[in-house]
Amino acid sequence: MATPVQTQTVDLVARFPGMVTADARPGYTGFIVNKENLVEVATAIRDEFGFDLLTAVTGVDYLAENKMEVVYHAYKTTGGPGLVFRVQVERVDPVEVPSLINIWPGVDFQEREAWDLLGIKFTGHPDLRRILMWEGYEGHPLRKDWKEPFFEEEAKPFKSRWPDGQHTFAENKNPFRDNLKFPADFDPEKFEVVNEDGLYASLERHTMKNEEGSLNTDHIVVNMGPHHPSTHGVLRVAVTLDGETIIGLKPVMGYLHRNHDKIGERNTYLQVIPYTDRLDYFNSMSNNFGYVTTVEKLMKIQVAERAEYIRVIMAELSRIQNHLIFIGMLMNDLGTMYTPSLYAFEERELVLDIFEAVSGARMMCNYFRFGGVVRDIPDYVMQKIKDLVLERLPAKTDEMERFLNENEILVARLKGIHVLNAEDAIKYSVTGPVLRATGVPYDLRRADPYSIYDRFDFDVAVRQNGDMMDNYLIRFDEIRQSLRILEQALKQIPQGPINSQKPQYQVRVPAGEAYGRIESPKGELAFYVVSNGKPNPYRYHVRPASFVNLTAVESMCIGSKIADFVALLAMLDIVMGELDR
Amino acid sequence: MENEKLSLPNYNIPEDLENVVAVTTLDRLYNWGRRSSVWPLMFGLACCAIEMIAAQTARYDMARFGMEVMRPTPRQADMMLVSGTVTKKMLPAIIRLYNQMPEPKYVVAMGACASSGGPFKEGYNVVAGIDKFLPVDVYIPGCPPTPQALIAGLIKLQEKIDRQSIKTVRWYNKEKKDGNYVPMPILGPDLIDVRRNADIKQAAAVAKVTQESA
């Protein structure tokens, strides 16, 4: 396991005396910035100290201390450890913190999420609306004093279920006999629906205006989704169109918001693992990886040597099948319905066979445990992996490239379309293949190595143009590099125990915080976990790649055609389970 | 159907005429046509949708059951496969799609979430089972159900279609003119099921009384 990230390499206290204090709570790192000086300090962090990539913004509700905290995690795209800084404010409504959207525009959606779920008002944010829930929803669900309609107890295991195993229907305990919660004396007949004026008003933000003297054309607003064959799930996009040209765009999400954070905070640490499977449901292995890495950081435990290799093997296999599906789905959206994706799914099934053989499930593997993995890889499965990695997948990757790469229509649809330059990509906190296609060689397996990635010889796949074609080609590069890592891992994997800990239902996690991040196939997948020493996480937050990468979409699409936007959604490789959580 | 053929089992049709002549009932003919081409709505909600796609691909091949034609528009679909967690925010869209589907229409709840809320039942934005709003024909257990399980569920749906009779089906019933129209729920402070307005008002009033006495 990589050593815990040292954040004290930057001394903000000396640079800003009186404005910044070091966080002295046990288990915490980083700095506490005064609310009034936040913008000034953040500007210096970006410009003087060079932390150009703000990956995560989230809030924590410290109910007992009567405080709300906003935590920022900043990193350098040149690699190295990050910087944690935070703002603490009184927990009295309105809870107000200045927005950092002018310094790192990538905080846009994340600040909106913190407003939606925690009720932290970011002053200066131009479009602070609810993002995951709908406008008009009662309350801010992640506050510690907010209880969901099916609330039973603060933490699992619930006394009613364990150890006696009694079961009563949750519906019977709720006054509305369903998963509902209304304010007292609510009358549904007199209720007036909150309309979506806010959404359409915010569409104007980037909308291009007709130039003086030019032909005045009518603009129409089109809603794509949430039921739309090309939005990769239940994403909705409101677009302003001038003919076929997009002149304004706003993603609307939350249609698959299934309350991952809130449920995670009720669960025990171990119970969260199967829920992480359902984040990015193409890559349950990677999600497991990110979560256990974070908790292991908190627990300060070593991972069994053989398990480290097994983890890398599983994560890289997962990356390969993800990228193959990506290519298939991109082709689907470009109009070659089905054929390339059938090729991709054929290979994916073979990878899923391996997952099923080791974990028992095709998609929701629930395979990682703190300190290792749950089962060893049997010999015959190891042989299967070897056959796949050494023989079949390299040949099939070549085959797909040969079939597709020089196709005239494909090149015409991808080359030079939707160019994202490196500067904008970093500004919008874009990570993963999309960032690397713009020429920034930022791969967490290299930039901030976790697990045992520092032992392998591989290149960070990088392309220079940042257009759709490069985004497409970089996936092939990454498949090749993953195969390289797999080849070495399969050669080096030692025999031995698969878990450094004893099997246990409940783990002891010392108080503190941890921010663990991994290079998931979609970008940086990070978990922010705060422990107060109890069997459940006090705060559990997921920083998904899809969600943050989507921040850039608004500015990328302006001026392009609506048909290319469909391809762009495929290119960003979003997964709604992870996006909405 | 015991006998997969269109012909009723008790008629002895000469072998060389078997592909030309069939003796059967009107119900059987009607159901045979419908069960052999159930067009699903191309509609994915969550993780289960990926297994639904997998079931379409070469290894499992739903096309063997006449179900390969996924229609993105509800106007051309016969069956809604609710594949994943139904959230409160998404529910109005699902109900609208269902109402737009022409009869005869079927609903299959795929996976634990669509059947009952599944692992996410306790979530504040989750509808605990689509059957609170739509009439579900087949429930498929699993999280997510494997493609095999999905296909088994769809075969169950075919069996259900086989048992229907043209005399009793709801879409030819003159008394039930609006068929299975489900009123649209409203997104208010929480999800408002307009069929339950009176209930909600009453429970909210009770909540006020208990709040005041507390």
Tell me briefly what this model is.
Chain A is α+β, with helices and mostly antiparallel strands and 581 residues long. Chain A has helices at residues 12-15, 38-47, 108-118, 170-173, 197-203, 260-266, 269-277, 284-299, 305-334, 339-359, 379-404, 408-414, 422-427, 433-436, 444-447, 468-492, 545-549, 553-557, 562-572, 576-580, and strands spanning 20-22, 31-33, 53-62, 67-75, 83-90, 95-98, 120-123, 220-224, 236-242, 245-252, 368-369, 372-373, 512-520, 523-531, 539-543.
Sketch the topology of chain B as an H/E string, one letter per element.
Answer: HHEHEHEHEEH
* Beta-strand proportion of chain A: 15-25%
Distance between the termini of chain A: 27 Å
Per CATH, the superfamily of the largest domain in chain A is Cytochrome-c3 Hydrogenase, chain B
Largest interface (C-beta under 8 Å): A-B, 62 and 58 residues
* Rg of chain A, alpha carbons: 24 Å
**How many distinct helices of chain A?**
20
Rounded to the nearest angstrom, the radius of gyration of chain B is 21 Å
Average pLDDT of chain B, to the nearest integer?
A: 86
How does this structure look, described?
The complex is a heterodimer of chains A (581) and B (214). With 581 residues, chain A is an alpha+beta fold. Chain A has two domains: 12-123, Beta Polymerase, domain 2, CATH 3.30.460.80; 260-580, Cytochrome-c3 Hydrogenase, chain B (Orthogonal Bundle). Chain A is 37% helix and 15% strand. Chain A has helices at 12-15, 38-47, 108-118, 170-173, 197-203, 260-266, 269-277, 284-299, 305-334, 339-359, 379-404, 408-414, 422-427, 433-436, 444-447, 468-492, 545-549, 553-557, 562-572, 576-580; strands at residues 20-22, 31-33, 53-62, 67-75, 83-90, 95-98, 120-123, 220-224, 236-242, 245-252, 368-369, 372-373, 512-520, 523-531, 539-543. In chain A, the strands form five sheets. A five-stranded mixed beta sheet of chain A has the order 1-2-5-4-3, covered by helices on one side. In chain A, α7 (269-277) packs antiparallel against α8 (284-299), α9 (305-334) runs antiparallel to α10 (339-359) and α9 (305-334) packs antiparallel against α19. The longest helix of chain A has 30 residues, at 305-334. The two termini of chain A are 27 Å apart. The relative contact order of chain A is 0.13. With 214 residues, chain B is mainly alpha-helical. Chain B has a three-stranded parallel beta sheet. The mean pLDDT of chain B is 86. Chain B is elongated and about 85 Å long. Chain B has helices spanning 26-35, 47-56, 91-100, 111-116, 147-162, 197-213, and strands at 79-83, 106-110, 138-140, 186-187, 191-192. Classes of the chains: A alpha+beta (581), B mainly alpha (214). At the A-B interface, α6 and α10 of A face α2, β4, β5 and α6 of B.
